[in-house]
Design goal:
Number of strands: 0
Oligomer: single chain
Largest sheet: none
Radius of gyration: 22 Å
Family: Belongs to the polysaccharide synthase family.
Shape: globular
Strand content: under 5%
Organism: Priestia aryabhattai (Bacillus aryabhattai)
Structural class: mainly alpha
Protein name: Lipopolysaccharide biosynthesis protein
Subcellular location: Cell membrane
Pfam families: Polysacc_synt_3
Length: 485
Amino acid sequence: MSVLNLNNELKNGILISAIGKYSNLIIQFILLAILSRLLTPHEFGVVAIVNVFLVFFTMLIDMGIGPAIIQNKTLTDQQVNSIFSFTILLSIILSILFALMAKPIALFYNNTHLFSVSLIMSLALLTSGLNMVPQSILLKQKRFLEVNFAQVFSSLLSGIVGCVLAFNNFSYYALIVSVIVKNTAMFVIIFHKAKLKVTRKIEKKDLKAIYSFSKNQFLFNLINYFSRNLDNILIGKFISTSALAYYDKAYTLSLYPNQILTNVITPVVQPIMSEYEDQKDIIKKTYLSLSKILALLGMPLTVFLVFSSKEIIYILFGLQWGGSIEIFKILAISVWIQMILSSTGAIFQSTNRSDLLLISGILSAILNVGSILVGIWTGKIEYLAIILVVSFSINFIQANYLLMIKVFQSQQLEFYKNLLEPFLISIMVFVPLFAIQIFMHNYPLFFVFVIKSLISLIVFIIGMNLTGNMNFIKGILKRGKDEIN
């Protein structure tokens, strides 16, 4: 397959993924905005506590199996069916274990509401585990359209159910049932399309076929979990449930650019780039192009989010979420860093270097966990946010060191040159927003937000043209070329 075909595949895959992801995100965003007005920060905080444990058990079910299925090109149908049957059994066992954890979780946080919430959340865990292998099979077969259709439909259905329940005073149960409905609808759609069968006998040799890859991926996920979720665990325990809700809302909002941009690209990258496992120069060029695109979009967006944090929080979620403003303003500084950093995992996987992905995860965990502990010790979630931004920045450097030096055997300077022009454009956006912040702080929120948005967009377009990067983007979209002008 030629480089041109590779870029066309990436371009088509990303386009399909973008349509699905953006539709899905719009639905989720509308749902979140509605529920934020119907439910209190305390109710969101209760669900956020249990969700930390749900994510952990979901990771135990995954065990790195999904990426391993995509990467392994020699798996037979019989082996895949055996792996699928194993994940079903594992999902059932861990869902029962999660339900048994309901009482200890409630006792640990001294909150009786957590008992019933955890019990119902075990169903969300079960339905999530069932989706893993079918979705990985469809992604491996590059059937991105079908995967995205399933995600959009299930999100729409779950959103309707969640809003109806919240409006009828079902409190935090509206959030939980919404997740269960989404996972169930997703499974019903993709199971048939993946043409999987449940086998009575699970062969050990079938699991060994993906063990070496999934082992490192699982260890990375395990380490990454604690480095990403320890803050939520400790805030809920040592500060307050409401503080956790404010923090979680700000943190979740800071991740939306990732979901809008990076998460559209990364599900497509590994299935396609894995075919070029031995041609690292091609993968490097693709990574540099992707990282430049993410920097061009992410850096100016970071500036806009920092200066518009107040307007964004109040317009989206209402006045009761004012406690999230300062936290979001701080975390927004790391938006562009997180966007590029999130894309590195798929590159490690594509080059079959899950060992280096694991090393990167260990280094990241040490920094993040240390930062979280210091932040919790201060007793203020704003200080925690500042320390985490510093940690993310250091992890950004070490991950790209491993990629450029160890994987591609190149120079780091080749990567950082990509950031110069995006930085200059960001400075251009910064200047007018700084002026608006000083002279328009007494104007209506929505009016100020519109002005900031329009001026940021205009300056961004001017900057893209002045630096020649508008032609760079057009070249990728229209011709599928991968060289950087």
